[in-house]
Specification:
Layout: H1 8-14, H2 21-25, H3 38-60, H4 75-86, E1 116-123, E2 133-138, H5 151-154, E3 161-162, H6 165-177, E4 182-186, H7 192-200, E5 208-212, H8 218-224, E6 230-234, H9 240-247, H10 252-266, E7 268-274, H11 280-294, E8 299-303, H12 324-337, E9 342-343
Parallel strand pairs: 2-4, 4-5, 5-6, 6-7, 7-8, 8-9
Antiparallel strand pairs: 1-2, 1-3
Bound molecules: iron/sulfur cluster.
Iron/sulfur cluster binds at residues 90-93, 95-97, 99, 107-109, 111, 142, 190.
Length: 344
């Protein structure tokens, strides 16, 4: 299997030649008391991350080996502690509901403290360099896409099995032994506390994929550095108006491009753009242009699988499949953008 040029570190982790990022944050000792304020925990996190970046660089350049397991709390544990506190006034995504999910208050996504998942399996239908991919599909979502193909689990977070961190960590280890190249957390935005608790229980080396709409908050963005190896990221729209109309989210471009810019500097990106019918000039063109100008060294997947699911019939302009002409025009936009690693 030849891996894409811009997913080099992912390849090294998938083939066990380098440790996943979480193994490094788990090796950085940080002394903290869970009882202190959130501000104090963040201060410790900032200094711990400086050490993490030095260790990551040294390991990747071969000048240092991963420290054997440490006895006390680690930088990774500190991330988990911060997420647990954030749950009391939830700002996991830019809806920033501020509700206490520990008391089972529900915000925009309607997910409480407990995460649930609809399925976990070895997925063979993802991009070639990902398969087999151990995919864990969470329920609930922070978007309300009118054309959502997973609307049954996205709109009903109470469906599915309780995501027990220990149990899922064991299933990831089993899937790794069965040949999984990665663990692929799907729709993780309302669930970072659960995802990190799962990863914290892992005893194997495996690349972590954050398969997401990239609408997580600034705070979660900082916590994901040192945990996520690859962002399998959607860039759905090229402007805020369409995002508001079809997915009911505000400030889409600012939030998502901000998160993509950070992801570009601290991990690797496989970006998906699903071409929407009638949205070539308002969405595909500006999205492709932004990527080519700001995060050019990524793997880019131009997708034509749009189908008018769920409530698409309420939007006549979206109630159809793409035409051959639209597909051809979208391909031309990507080819002429200068992006080097494109999957059609
Ligand atoms: S994850 Fe986002 S939508 Fe859900 S409660 Fe938290 S801030 Fe609100």
């Amino acid at each position: 299997m030849k891996y894409p040029v811009f997913l080099r570190r992912y390849e090294m982790v998938a083939t066990n030649k380098l440790p996943a990022r979480y193994m490094i944050t788990r090796s950085v000792p940080v002394s903290f008391d869970k009882g202190v304020s959130l501000e104090e925990l963040w201060e410790m996190h900032h200094s711990g991350m400086e050490e993490y970046r030095l260790v990551l660089r040294s390991i990747d350049t071969g000048t240092y080996s991963l420290r054997p397991s440490i006895s006390g709390p680690s930088l990774f544990d500190l991330k988990v502690a911060i997420l647990e506190k954030m749950l009391e006034s939830c700002c996991f995504c830019e809806h920033r509901c501020g509700i206490n999910r520990k008391y089972n208050e529900k915000g925009y996504c309607r997910v409480g403290a407990v995460s649930r998942y609809a399925s976990e399996f070895l997925h063979r239908g993802e991009e070639p360099e990902l398969v087999p991919s151990h995919t864990i599909f969470f329920t609930g979502c922070v978007f309300s896409c009118a054309y959502c193909q997973n609307w049954d689990i996205a709109t009903h977070p109470e469906k599915g099995k309780i995501a027990d961190p220990m149990e899922l960590a064991r299933s990831i280890e089993i899937r790794r032994r069965q040949g999984a190249r990665n663990v692929n957390f799907v729709t993780p935005t309302p669930h970072p506390h659960t995802v990190l608790n799962i990863i914290g229980n892992l005893s194997v080396n495996i690349p972590v994929i954050w398969n997401s709409n990239m609408y997580h908050s600034q705070e979660v963005k900082e916590l994901l550095e040192g945990v996520v190896d690859m962002y399998l990221a959607d860039l759905k729209y090229g402007n805020d108006r369409c995002a508001e109309k079809y997915s009911k989210v505000h400030d889409y471009m600012q939030v998502v491009t901000g998160n993509l810019t950070t992801a570009y500097s601290d991990a690797e990106i496989l970006l998906r753009h699903l071409v929407l019918p009638g949205h070539l000039h308002c969405c595909t063109m500006p999205a492709v242009k932004w990527v080519a100008e700001n995060i050019p060294h990524i793997r880019f997947n131009l997708m034509f699988q749009y189908n008018p699911h769920y409530l698409a019939h309420m939007y006549p302009e979206m109630n159809r499949q793409l035409t051959a002409e639209e597909m051809e025009k979208a391909m031309h936009m990507v080819i002429s953008s200068g992006l080097e690693d494109v999957l059609f």
